Amino acid sequence: MLDKINFGIGVITFIFMIATYVFTLAFNKGYFDVDTFVLEEDRGHFRITFSFMNGTSTVIKVKEVIFRDNANNKIPILDFNPEKYDDALRTEKARKYDEEHRNDVAYFTGMNPYKIKPIKLHPESKPTVIPFLVSSGTSKDLKFYLDKKPSSVELVFTRRVFIGVRFLIFPIFKRSTLFEINM
């Protein structure tokens, strides 16, 4: 009689353990989402912006971002700063303006329109610095300059994020790419 009671308690415990495991898998999922890819030509380069969402319960550190083309070749990320480019262009235009108008009677040094730095109501954000952190439950807007159009982006993490994998590859130009993982 006692053996049957112990066996019944063991079966009930086993069923409860399986139910707890299934519940944990079903409701304790994290996810990564890469969304809103925008590719624009900007100052002779391709500027790609997108949003990376960390839906896990931990902080994620992205140590490398790799862009690839259709032939799976790496596309290097350019060290391009649009504000420095604009400043250099404005300086060159100011120099040319000074040379062209040097002998004008009404020309004064302070009258060069290119020497006046424009006021930007919405200053441009600089390209993303790698590595970067993304807190749990938040998203980070990323911006990079490239020479070619990419077909995929690979995010390499400092630790494993999914069954021994330290990186995720997202195709570009789908509306949303969602990868779920079990934590």
Summary, kept brief:
The chain is built from 2 helices and 9 strands, in the order H-E-E-E-E-H-E-E-E-E-E. By secondary structure, the chain is an alpha+beta fold.
- Largest β-sheet summary: 5 strands, antiparallel
What proportion strand? 35-45%
In CATH, the topology of the largest domain is named: Immunoglobulin-like
Q: Please identify the structural class as seen in this structure.
A: alpha+beta
Helix fraction, binned, reads 10-25%
Q: Name the CATH architecture of the largest domain.
A: Sandwich
Number of E-type strands? 9
N-to-C order of helices and strands: HEEEEHEEEEE
Contiguous uncertain segments of 5+ residues: 174-183
The number of helical elements comes to 2
**Structural shape:** rod-shaped
CATH homologous superfamily (4th level) name of the largest domain = Immunoglobulins
CATH first level of the largest domain: Mainly Beta
Fold and architecture overview:
By secondary structure, this protein is of the alpha+beta class. It folds into two domains: 29-80 and 127-182, Immunoglobulins (Immunoglobulin-like, Sandwich), CATH 2.60.40; 85-115, no CATH class. It has two helices and nine strands. The chain has helices at residues 2-27, 82-100, and strands at 29-42, 45-54, 60-68, 74-75, 132-134, 138-146, 152-157, 167-171, 176-182. Strands 3, 4, 5, 7 and 8 form a five-stranded antiparallel sheet that branches. The longest helix has 26 residues, at 2-27. Residues 174-183 have low confidence and may be disordered.
